Amino acid sequence: MGLKPNEVTVIPVISTCAGVRELDVGKYIHGIAVKLGMLLEVKVVNALINLYGKCGYLEAACCLFEGMPVQSLVSWNSIIAVHVQMGLVEKGVGYFIMMRRAGVNCDQATLVSLLLACENLGFRKLAEAVHCYILNCGLDKNLTIATALLDLYAKLGILSDSCKVFSEMINPDAVAWTAMLASYAMHGRGREAMEHFELLIREGVVPDHVTFTHLLSACSHSGLVEEGESYFKIMYEVYGVEPRVEHYSCVVDLLGRSGLLNDAYKLIKRMPVEPNSGVWGALIGACRVRGNIELGKEVAEQLFALDPSDSRNYIMLSNIYSAAGQWRDASKVRALMKQRSLIRNPGCSYIEHGNKIHRFVMGDQSHPDTEQIYNKLEELIRKNREAGFTSKTEYVLHDVDREVKEDLINKHSEKLAIAFGLLVVNAGMPLIITKNLRICGDCHGFAKLVSLIEKRRIIIRDTKRFHHFSNGLCSCGDYW
Ligand SMILES: [Zn+2]
Ligand SMILES: [Zn+2]
């Protein structure tokens, strides 16, 4: 009785509160810590910064940070990580710059936070600057950091840099090998992924379920059906890796790609694990591409049952109906969506230029160069039309006339980013664009033709994969 809490006892309590987002108890402990004069202890303050950050009280976290007499490395790390995790990456990066100015050197934790920030921002210039810093400090030999870099470059669309980072690693571990495999997979480089896998086995790395997820996904992204099926077979028979739901999802995608929709459906039915929305989502995607309305409807029912609030499923079913010309059914699905108050996420596309990320939404007119962008877009649309491209207006979810639909689809964010990119990115350099949703079929066709007409490589990263457009073709083979 009468024992007073000290730093050793309060820190784990604060960390537990942060873990379960128990803000009220955390605040109470904060009060005790103030009363007992514990805020001079850096570790206590760091734990509190983490607590407020995790509970979304960034102002309180920043206040504590700025009130510290001396900011230690462990506290700089906390404040950067808290911002990055909350998606406020620009602020996180701002703190990194302040930290460097204050003469504090980074450690592994800060650098990994920062590389994550570069990834979320899609900022290549910043990634290169952080890479330079890593080289200067000699931290490039650190496997965790090098793997984060490799992964980052792949996600920024620069696969060649990922390969370079990997080739410079001394004794890469299983995580690094798998990260390289994942990079090939997301870029649809199935053959390279298979070669990499063979090499990984020869080097004595033991493949696990993550390795096989990326290998199967590489096969499905590249249309390597037979190869994928054979890997799916040997993963358990040779390597003893029990197939999980994500592996089934890749195989369903593979079968769907080759038009074997019924086989895919049968596979789902005999899965020993409960199929999730990833598995059904792979099949509904195949139904859209193959125009199979009957199966599409059935799969949509499963998806609605799993997650009635996911607007993507309604859009997918509506697209299946529209593509088959069943407008009435398509509008029924959209009415249902409206009735359930589901809102479609607004699409937006990003492109980096001149130390800045330029963001576009549909019909955006906020860019300072908006007039030139629209002039360029009009020129591209005219050239595309002359080359025989017609707008796929079924991708517009509005009950309006065709002309209005064309106008809406022609202002999709990807098209604006492409027009802007062509104006500002040096000739010979590819345009690298990030899209927050899956690219629509119309923009996909548009990008293919622009890559041919303008003789320019265009790389678009959407939520599912990378599309590399060149000479009128896309690396996804029009299946995504
Ligand atoms: Zn589009
Ligand atoms: Zn594509």
From TrEMBL:
Q: Which PROSITE patterns match?
A: PPR (PS51375)
Record flagged with keyword Cytoplasm: no
Q: What InterPro entries would the database entry show?
A: DYW_dom (IPR032867), E2_motif (IPR046849), E_motif (IPR046848), PPR_At4g14850-like_plant (IPR046960), PPR_rpt (IPR002885), TPR-like_helical_dom_sf (IPR011990)
Q: What keywords appear on the UniProt entry?
A: Repeat
**Domain annotation DYW: ranges:** 388-480
What stretches of residues are PPR repeats?
Answer: 173-207
Q: Which PANTHER family match?
A: DYW DOMAIN-CONTAINING PROTEIN (PTHR47926:SF533), PENTATRICOPEPTIDE REPEAT-CONTAINING PROTEIN (PTHR47926)
Which family does the record assign? Belongs to the PPR family. PCMP-H subfamily.
Name the chain's protein: DYW domain-containing protein
Organism of this sequence? Dovyalis caffra
